[in-house]
């Protein structure tokens, strides 16, 4: 594996399988009364969040703590960043504090690459979401969740059909998933109105469709995406109602899915927009499980990047 995790596209099939297998071992811990392992004792993980986040930030924090790392949480609001400090000076400060891994979320696509490739820090950089670009650990936790339901836990999605539906244009989750799911052998179809598909999507390893009703009866997993209004400047669809009618997942559409098909969403959901409450809370929904799996997957990523020399699990008692 490389020293940084910046893009899902950086992961070879072997890398992805190793992360998923390690996450499966670590996932067992979540069901034990004592969830902590000593694997990263003495290491420092900094969570550097320039953009709002609930799940991703607390998930990385929980992951680092369960591996006994020291965790420093650094949010842009309330720090010197709001006084105009640059990414470079922030990076130098982190370096001075001896960070071993920096987990970064930033509104600008490419910010984690800048941090990793500038020589400002020696630590491993993990992209926790950069602009509309990528969110590789989300893709890993999504793939992990799919393998548990669709492949009996084996780290492969060979021949599985995955539909990713909604605001693909603004979604770093969609891009990272498209890359990783393809690496794991899945067939991905992006479903969106033409205005919400990115230019150049024809170079992604996916099919595209504008017709949700035609795609979902064949899918093994249906991943709904939030309409990211905060990134929209202008009209991408006529009305919210019209959007929901054509691209929302409701009970009527859910009834056309195969029995084994799971429904996913990275969160945060806008209930009533891209997904109705009855679908989000249904038996098929694995949305809460995605959050639980996220901790195990991020533990695996931190453990593997920081080069834990001993096995992650075992020998701790
Ligand atoms: C996503 C994100 O921030 O990219 N959420 C997440 O990390 N779980 C998707 C979104 O904001 O809609």
UniProtKB/TrEMBL annotation:
Catalytic activity: carbamoyl phosphate + L-aspartate = N-carbamoyl-L-aspartate + phosphate + H(+)
Keyword Metal-binding in record: no
Keyword Transferase: yes
A biological process term (GO) from this entry: 'de novo' UMP biosynthetic process
Record's signal peptide: none
GO cellular component, one term: cytosol
SUPFAM superfamilies: Aspartate/ornithine carbamoyltransferase
Pathway this chain belongs to: Pyrimidine metabolism; UMP biosynthesis via de novo pathway; (S)-dihydroorotate from bicarbonate: step 2/3
Subunit structure comment from the entry: Heterododecamer (2C3:3R2) of six catalytic PyrB chains organized as two trimers (C3), and six regulatory PyrI chains organized as three dimers (R2).
Descriptive protein name: Aspartate carbamoyltransferase
Organism: Nocardioides agri
Lineage: Bacteria, Bacillati, Actinomycetota, Actinomycetes, Propionibacteriales
């Amino acid at each position: 594996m490389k020293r940084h995790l910046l893009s899902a596209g950086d992961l070879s099939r072997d890398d992805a399988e190793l992360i998923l297998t390690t996450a499966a071992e670590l996932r067992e811990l979540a069901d034990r009364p004592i969830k902590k392992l000593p694997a990263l004792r003495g290491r420092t993980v900094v969570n550097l969040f320039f953009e709002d986040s609930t799940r991703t930030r607390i998930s990385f924090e929980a992951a680092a703590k369960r591996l006994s790392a020291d965790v420093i949480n650094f949010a842009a609001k309330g720090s010197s960043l709001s006084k105009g400090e640059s990414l470079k000076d922030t990076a130098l400060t982190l370096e001075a504090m001896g960070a071993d891994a920096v987990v970064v979320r930033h509104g600008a696509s490419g910010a984690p690459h800048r941090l990793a490739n500038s020589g400002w820090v020696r630590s491993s950089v993990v992209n926790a979401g950069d602009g509309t670009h990528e969110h590789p650990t989300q893709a890993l936790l999504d793939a992990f969740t799919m393998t548990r339901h669709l492949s009996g836990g084996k780290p492969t999605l060979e021949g599985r059909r995955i539909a990713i539906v909604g605001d693909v244009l603004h979604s770093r989750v969609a891009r990272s998933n498209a890359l990783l799911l393809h690496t794991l052998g899945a067939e991905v179809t992006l479903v969106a109105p033409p205005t919400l598909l990115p230019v150049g999507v024809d170079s992604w390893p996916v099919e595209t469709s504008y017709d949700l009703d035609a795609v979902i009866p064949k899918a093994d997993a249906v991943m709904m995406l939030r309409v990211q209004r905060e990134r929209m400047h202008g009209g991408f669809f006529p009305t919210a109602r019209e959007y929901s009618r054509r691209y929302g997942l409701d009970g009527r559409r859910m009834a056309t899915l195969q029995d084994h098909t799971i429904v996913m969403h990275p969160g945060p959901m806008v209930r009533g927009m891209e997904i109705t409450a009855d679908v989000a809370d249904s038996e098929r929904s694995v949305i809460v499980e995605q959050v639980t799996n996220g901790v195990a997957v991020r533990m695996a990523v931190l453990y593997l990047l920081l080069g834990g020399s001993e096995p992650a699990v075992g020998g701790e008692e």
